[in-house]
Amino acid sequence: MSATEPRTTRPPKPGRTATSRRPGTTALTYTLLTVGLVVMSAPFLWMAVSAFKTPKDLGASPPVWIPTEWTLANFRELLDLMDIARNFMNSAVVAVVVTVCNLVFCSMLGYALAKLNFAGKKAVLGVVLGALMVPGNLMLLPQFVMMSKMGLLDSYAGLILPFAAGAFGVFLMRQFMMAIPDELLEAARIDGAGEWYIFWRIVLPLVKPALATLSIFVFLGSWNNFLWPLVATNDPDKYTLPVALATFATDPTKAAGSNGALMAGAFLVVLPVVAVFLVLQRHFTQGIATSGLK
After folding, report:
1. How many Å apart are CA 266 and CA 264, to the nearest integer?
2. DSSP the chain
């Protein structure tokens, strides 16, 4: 073969794509996924539907999935037996403020660890990684003693401050910000932009998927947090919704014969989490899909 003669290469073997799979394998995959979906969603669907059942349907044997009569009486009973509006507001205030604080503080520290050089940077990163390995329940006693010494028990500040920033959020934001090209930030600095401007106007818009992912995780954890609000509050006016509902469920003078009200309360606990996930679903999915490329 001469040097000028084009070299022929053997065409690559076609890879196995999703369309070339066996129909039986695809059917089995969808069957297993469907079974898993039913198993995971059945308790939630049962709770959601039971919130609108009559006492007759709740006590029926065998169980009745679809109510014979839809009713809002369980929610009215819940309003009569609990100060549900105050408890819902307590949970909303704590969850929203904790989420906003995590977005601000975790993104700021993540930016510093990812793009700035300062003395002790490796030590700070080591502390963050070490904090990830500490079980959350292990910090319960030190947090309680600290809040007690500061006089913040039975207050919103006592419920918010221990969770205003987390090691997981710092590490997540750092990993996403590491993928931002340094040349982009250097160009902004050459044009005279300060670090605050770069952080708020350039970096944060580029990590919206990470912010959405962190929002969902933090809001979900704060809204469903039960142990710390139970320990840090003795005033019923400061009870969050999970604590108030658990207290109601263990009170024999109120919870006896109130299964419908309990189901309605559980439905109200889950509803905001589902709403937040649906609103941020697109960004959350994008954040999970691109996390492996960072």
Report:
1. 5
2. --SSSPPP-PPPPPP--GGGS-HHHHHHHHHHHHHHHHHHHHHHHHHHHHTT--HHHHT-SS--SS-SS--SHHHHHHHHHS-HHHHHHHHHHHHHHHHHHHHHHHHHHHHHHHH---TTHHHHHHHHHHHHTS-GGGGHHHHHHHHHHTT-TTSHHHHHGGGSS-HHHHHHHHHHHTTS-HHHHHHHHHTT--HHHIIIIIIHHHTHHHHHHHHHHHHHHHHT--HHHHHH---GGG--HHHHHHHHHT-HHHHTT-HHHHHHHHHHHHHHHHHHHHHSHHHHHHHHHHGGG-
Q: What is the pTM of this model?
A: 0.79
Q: Are 91 and 248 in contact (CB under 8 A)?
A: no
Give the tens place of pLDDT for each residue, 85-118.
Answer: 899 999 999 999 999 999 999 999 999 999 988 8
> In the chain, how long is the greatest CA-to-CA distance?
97
pLDDT tens, position by position, 224-269: 899 999 999 988 889 999 998 888 888 776 666 577 888 888 888 8
